[in-house]
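Our working data are protein records whose layout never changes between entries. Instead of coordinates, the fold is spelled out as a row of discrete tokens. Here is such a record, shown just as it appears in the course material:
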Amino acid sequence: FGLTMAKRLTALCEICNQEPYKYKCPTCRITYCSVPCFKRHKEQPCQPAPKTAAQQTPQPIHHEDEEETDLLSEQTLESLADNKALRAMLTNPHLRTMLDSIDTSSRPAQDVKEAMSIPIFQEFADECLKHCGVDIGQGSAT
């Protein structure tokens, strides 16, 4: 687990070849570091990458109580990607490891609940929610 994560953190963006990658195209799995690199990549249609058994990505788990309204728009996702506070938090390798683990988990809701006891994760989650306009109910501000 640690060696794979260390290797991933040093691999470069396949678009600009200058920064470590942070994301993968959901279609072709090419790695990129930022929204501008993603937009540059999407200027040309991409094809799904052939998958071997070792490369299979976990499929999202749909819960019966999950509604379409729980999903974020592309515009909101891009806005989150441009959020400076979130980008600064994502420089923390421990937070990135937690997010990667949750992203590939078979029980993400439980893992998020457990991660909320870790201050850096809670700060990250609160900033995401705040940025999306969700009242996180901190303190007794009037």
Observations:
- Confidence is low (pLDDT under 50) at residues 1-9.
- The first strand starts at residue 23 and ends at 24.
- The CA atoms of residues 35 and 82 lie 7 Å apart.
- DSSP finds seven helices and two strands in the chain.
